[in-house]
Write a structure and sequence with these properties.
Helix content is 71%, strand content 0%. It has 14 helices and no strands.
């Protein structure tokens, strides 16, 4: 079932401690996500922290050094936990933290399951030069599905907001891919699409070899153009949404779009060089897009 909603959950004395634990997990991650979520009212912010904590849990499984069989088993365990969560008796700490937000904001079970499916794509094998359709499916699962959950928590579950989630999720994930080429290669992964590699004469799939190829910048520029198309569409649809509700999405879009611009300027001359925005600039973006 797609839209099963839990009955309201009574406040328990341990709920405050649970929320604090989840909040500390998010804060310790040192992510720009944290600052965007500070724009939300407390209840919605706690809901997003719980969603983020869930994403970290399953992502850590996919990125672990465990054997493939164990990763698959751990992710299957999360599917069972999602079933238990929607049946009203979650067991894990993060699932318990999700109980209230699921009931309050009508979060969809299928979106949680899609995220797990995306992590399983990473867990089953090292993704190397997927075709464009597979890359799009991966982005839909690991990023756009998070966006679908997010717009409900933000307070705008409209069709337009879900279209923002579709486009902006893909834009953010493609930007991550272009930013993390070297880090992904160290894990044996290469998310650049096969069609674009072929177009520029790169026949190899070994990540390290591809990152040293002189045609790499040309491939990355095409992926950046695809990300920019998704940013454009996402921001176009955001104009039809509640401005107040979508402020965190607008901030995330601004931060990631600025990061993409920096990557384009670097032209991927050194894929190992870490591109990041300064804290004052990110703070300015937060005020510009989140408070004005």
């Amino acid at each position: 079932m797609n839209d099963v909603t839990l009955a309201p959950v009574a406040e328990h004395p341990s709920d405050a401690a649970l929320r604090q634990t989840i909040r500390h997990r998010v804060e310790s991650a040192g992510t720009s996500f944290y600052w965007a979520m500070r724009l939300l009212p407390v209840d919605r912010r706690n809901g997003m922290y719980a969603v983020y904590a869930f994403c970290r849990e399953v992502d850590d499984i996919a990125d672990s050094e465990w054997p493939v069989a164990r990763k698959i088993a751990e992710l299957a365990g999360w599917r069972e936990e999602i079933d238990a969560l929607y049946a009203g008796h979650p067991l894990r700490l993060v699932a318990r933290a999700l109980s209230g937000p699921i009931s309050r904001y009508h979060l969809r079970r299928d979106d949680f399951l899609a995220i797990v499916d995306g992590m399983e794509m990473d867990a089953r094998e090292d993704i190397r030069a997927p075709d464009l359709a597979t890359l799009d499916l991966y982005c839909a699962r690991v990023a756009s599905a998070v966006g679908h959950l997010s717009v409900h928590v933000f307070g705008d579950p409209s069709a337009a907001a879900h279209r923002v989630a579709e486009s902006l999720g893909r834009a953010l994930q493609l930007t991550n891919i272009l930013r993390d080429l070297d880090e992904d290669a160290s894990r044996g992964r290469l998310y650049l699409p096969r069609e674009l590699l072929d177009r520029h004469g790169i026949r190899e799939t070994d990540p390290g070899t591809v990152l040293r190829h002189p045609a790499l910048p040309a491939v990355c520029r095409e992926v950046a153009a695809l990300a920019e198309q998704h940013f454009f569409e996402g921001m176009r649809m955001m104009e039809r949404c509640s401005r107040r509700a979508m402020r965190p999405a607008a901030v995330m879009a601004a931060v990631y779009r600025a990061t993409l611009a920096e990557l384009v300027r670097s032209d991927w001359r050194d894929p190992a060089a870490r591109i990041s925005l300064s804290s004052p600039f990110k703070l300015w973006l937060m005020f510009r897009h989140g408070l004005v």
